[in-house]
Amino acid sequence: MEKFKQNPLVKKLGFNRIVLCGVLILMYIFFSILVPAVTGSQFAGMSHIMGALNYAYFLGFLSLGVTFVIATGGIDFSIGPVMFCCGLVSGYCLMTYNMPLPVCLLISVLIGALFGLWNGYLVAYWSVPPFIVSMASMNMAKGIASVFTKTQSVSWPRSTDANGWFRNLIKMGGIPTGLICFLVAAVICAIILNNTRFGRYIICLGSNKEAVRLSGVDTRKWQMFAYLMCGLLVGIATIFFVGTYTTVQPGYGDQYNNEAIAGCVMGGTSMAGGLASIGGTVIGVFIISLLQEGILALKLTKDVQLIITGLIVIVAVYADVMARRRKN
Amino acid sequence: MGEVILQMKDIDKSFPGVHALDHVGFEVRRGEVHALMGENGAGKSTLMKVLTGIYKKDSGSIIYKGKEVEFHNTREAQDNGVVIVHQELNMVGDLSVAQNIFIGREPRKGLRIDDKKMIEDSKALFDRLRIDIDPTEKMSELTVGKQQMCEIAKAISHNAELIIFDEPSAALTEKEIEDLFSIIRDLKAQDLGIIYISHRMDEIKVITDRVTVMRDGGYVGTLITADCTKEDIINMMVGRVIYEKPKEKSLVPDDAPVVLKVEHLNAGKMVQDVSFELRKGEILGFSGLMGAGRTETARAIFGADPKQSGDIYVNGEKVEINSPEDAVKHGIGYLSEDRRRFGIVVGKSIVENSTMATLEEYMNGIFINKGKEKEAAERYINELGTKTPSSDQLVVNLSGGNQQKVVIAKWLVRNSDILIFDEPTRGIDVGAKNEIYKLMNRLAAEGKSIIMISSEMTEILRMSDRIVIMCEGRKTGEVKIEEATQELIMDKATRQMS
Lengths: 328, 498
Prior knowledge:
heterodimer, A: mainly alpha, ABC transporter involved in vitamin B12 uptake, BtuC, two-stranded antiparallel sheet, 2 strands, B: alpha/beta, Rossmann fold, six-stranded mixed beta sheet, 17 helices, 24 strands, globular
């Protein structure tokens, strides 16, 4: 085992990530055997893979976003409801006020960014704990969306409708364009995290903020930018959500917080800050997505998935805590 | 003085790399106030921690009330009547005085807390101490002096027979100190044993019966306070053999320009009206005891903590420094006394730490030029002789001395001209210490200016060209190295300013 860990190729890919890939494959095999046995219908095959992927796109963007925040040692529990707020407000603009689609998509991204900026400002400059800030933002996002849409749900255009072309972002013909978009975004995020000042500073300040500040770095600014980055990605996640699921209902979105955070921490980003892996987040997101697809295929309710993701978060964070303790 | 209540014999305690207590002996009698003195790091606190069970002794014996004991924690010590009154108060501000005194052992009436009894008991305690405090008052409403009285009352309520005062007067006013002394005299009359730790020589003369002096973890001697002079005690405190020869004369030419001038700096209680000049190529030592305000002064200059007033001039020009960012821009670098908390990001590599203050110069557009960065880090690994297998090594895996070199590298990469070294050799072994000294001398010779804060007298005398001495937030003296002696410095460092 140790020898395997020391292998240069393994080191480069990351031992954790290899294990996660193994988990992903095992899960797929598990469902492929269990689903036919229980329900009599097939699991293996393209249709369920596409189902899982559809779920992975929007969740992936959420997870990428929250990775930046968790890297600073913070947390954002508002991402799911903010995504719903974006979808509702911009969708309402599109359907009720007949605003042009590109403008509406831009509004969506803008709302996400504004929430990120707000959260980041409060956390970085006012030193309000991120937990509290994001809890408050979560409720504000729900409230704003409900007020704006007068508590109506919003349905985005279907692919055959006039404004339906944006769905090509998710799927064009038989090609899962969404997967391409997500992977490209992940690569860009990885480059930002590993090769820019922003990435370097937020990871370092997640590890020891005071040392970074005493090196003459404006830590508050960079910390705020981490939340802004998260908000931007939440805004983009919205496009992939409405492109896949069409209807957005006010008052929901909480469950995606847990799933996005689960994907992120499972991938090796530390809740304590200072350690982040975009590659890990991507695999984590696929695992969560496959899990939800598998549970639906087993004809179990969504509630079962809530229980399992809850447990995943706890196990992943516990593993991180243990790893830290061993190091010290 | 009555019978011996506490006798510590041959106490030995080592930490990795440090022999903290070297076969120390110490005794206290009933009805006596026994001072425990020594420089920072002499081992006073360690000895008291061994007594109250915070540390486990390696060898030796503690005889308390005629029986050999070994307490495993402060609670057990308390239950046996050995109580420590800390320098920092351990009180819950939002609770009442009575609640604080009986915290964790509230009198009960059925399931409920018996407030009435608690208040009555508190009153009885205060009566015994002849102090006037309302037990129902909120702790945070009291003055620091009164809070200290409550701490003492709490100690006595444990049926204390041996009370340790750890620098009790540090935060008190003159009047409050008088009150404290009258309480101590009362306790003494009640036949309790009292250990009094303080740096204030004048107080020692007033309140204590005997003085035990420690130095470098060893026992030096015990004197009867009335029969000795302040000078006798100081001589015992500093009278060590000096291994390293002190610097004989300043290496700074008389006409060296002033690079940093600080005028009337005020920042909180710990920095009051501090003024000094630092010249090019100079190592300016900052001496003083723990809590003298040296680190606070450095942090205020560096913009790490807010300051209330004062002017700072860099190379003759007045500058505004409101954050570390500003200070770094003006070429000031700060090496904290607490490296792990304030100096380095331990979970990151040497490279990442080395360029922390200079990252903008290692950019290729928006991307970090990792090759150039590594080159810079490796240059300083070689130059400073940092021992590491590679520049990608995480700093957490380096020894203390090598971690310090990484912090130094960070400021050299930045090309800072003014470096503030706060306890540069704390927690570093002797060999690495010498390397750091050599390095500082070399930097000074190359024209960098260094402020060196140090609690080690030998370090101050060996390295400094000039020495500023602080005591309780004020500058109490400035001496040229040619005139400096340990006795002179210690005298100024213990001079009470009030």
